[in-house]
């Protein structure tokens, strides 16, 4: 190995150690599973790094697959096929389809452009639909010239038989210092509150900053502490309950961490948890925020 392909990967000592040894000893596995319990910790970036190390400079020998929503149905699709294979797409939920797995198989069967191997990276592999998962399983059982890298933050959703055919590469949460280091070139200001709720994930930190900046500063200033007047609580509840569901859930997470840090009040913590559960079970948002904010 002439140069270290992982110089830009911060943290993840175990993953880098395992992959570096595989490259140095020319023992690249037929299939890897890059897995963590939290998203945004560098799995995809590391997958691209080792893929580049395997194939060299020719990116034509790397195929990147990710979940998509079905925009149009193939001609001749029967209702039975629609229900068995594409239910998630009907509901607007992205998934990895069997056609994408077939594309990967055909990709690996063709000659590499500038190397001895090709690499297929499957992002969010836990979103394989059942037909695609079974097709991938059969493919992993057959010897081939090429490497699959499955990336997932929800490995428990993958077929155990698929996992058993992959070499597991574990990824962990980063330290707060590492998160800051990852994002230093992005000119992003990270508060301690954002670092705390990001739980060691630079990806989450970026999402959390985006969510925080989407909320009017006036609202977050008023919610530094729980409202102490009925009028203020009702006004805040009226504003917040009109937001989209994702933003309301995020604000609850932010408040729960912020208020717990300041007050260490278990009753307040329990009320935040109850509010989250109510929102998840589609209780009327106005009722949820009234119950949480009213003094």
Description:
The protein has a 5-stranded parallel sheet with strand order 2-3-4-1-5, sandwiched between helices. It starts with 12 loop residues before the first helix and ends with a helix. It folds into 2 domains: 13-170, P-loop containing nucleotide triphosphate hydrolases (Rossmann fold, 3-Layer(aba) Sandwich); 176-293, no CATH class. It has 295 residues and is an alpha/beta fold. The protein has 15 helices and 5 strands. The protein has helices at 13-24, 43-55, 79-85, 87-90, 98-109, 130-140, 160-164, 176-183, 192-198, 202-214, 217-222, 230-240, 245-263, 266-280, 285-293, and strands at residues 31-35, 62-65, 119-122, 147-152, 167-170. Helix 6 links the parallel strand 3 (119-122) and strand 4. Mean pLDDT is 88; it is low at 72-91.
**CATH fold field value of the largest domain:** Rossmann fold
Which of globular, elongated, flat, extended, rod-shaped describes the shape?
Answer: elongated
Poorly predicted tracts of residues: 72-91
Into which percent range does the helicity of residues fall? 40-55%
Q: Please trace the helix and strand order, writing H or E for each element.
A: HEHEHHHEHEHEHHHHHHHH
Number of helices: 15
Determine the structural class based on helices, strands and strand pairing: alpha/beta
CATH class designation of the largest domain: Alpha Beta
The largest beta-sheet arranges its strands as: 2-3-4-1-5
**CATH H level of the largest domain: which superfamily?**
P-loop containing nucleotide triphosphate hydrolases
Major beta sheet summary = 5 strands, parallel
In what range is the share of β-strand residues? 5-15%
The count of domains is 2
């Amino acid at each position: 190995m002439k140069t270290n392909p992982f110089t830009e990967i911060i943290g993840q000592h175990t993953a880098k150690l395992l992959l570096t040894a595989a490259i140095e000893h020319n023992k690249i596995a037929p299939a890897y599973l890059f897995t963590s319990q939290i998203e945004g910790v560098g799995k995809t970036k590391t997958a691209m790094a080792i893929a580049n190390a395997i194939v060299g400079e020719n990116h034509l020998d790397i195929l990147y697959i990710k979940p998509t929503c079905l925009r149009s149905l193939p001609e001749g699709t029967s209702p039975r096929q629609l229900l068995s294979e594409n239910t998630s797409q009907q509901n607007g939920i992205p998934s990895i389809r069997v056609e994408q797995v077939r594309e990967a198989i055909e990709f690996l069967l063709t000659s590499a452009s500038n190397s001895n191997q090709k690499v297929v990276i499957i992002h969010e592999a836990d979103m394989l639909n059942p037909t695609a998962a079974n097709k991938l399983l059969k493919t992993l059982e057959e010897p081939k010239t090429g490497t699959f890298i499955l990336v997932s933050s929800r490995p428990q959703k993958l077929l155990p038989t698929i996992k058993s055919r992959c070499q597991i590469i574990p990824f962990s949460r980063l330290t707060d210092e590492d998160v800051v280091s990852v994002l230093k070139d992005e000119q992003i200001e990270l508060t301690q509150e954002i670092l705390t709720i990001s739980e060691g994930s630079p990806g989450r930190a970026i999402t959390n900053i985006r969510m925080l900046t989407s909320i009017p500063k006036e609202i977050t200033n008023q919610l530094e502490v729980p409202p102490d007047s009925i009028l203020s609580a009702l006004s805040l509840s009226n504003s917040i309950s009109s937001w989209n569901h994702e933003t309301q859930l995020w604000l609850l997470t932010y408040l729960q961490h912020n208020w717990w840090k300041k007050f260490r009040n278990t009753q307040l913590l329990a009320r935040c948890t109850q509010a989250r559960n109510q929102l998840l079970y589609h209780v009327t948002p106005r009722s949820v925020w009234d119950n949480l904010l009213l003094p």
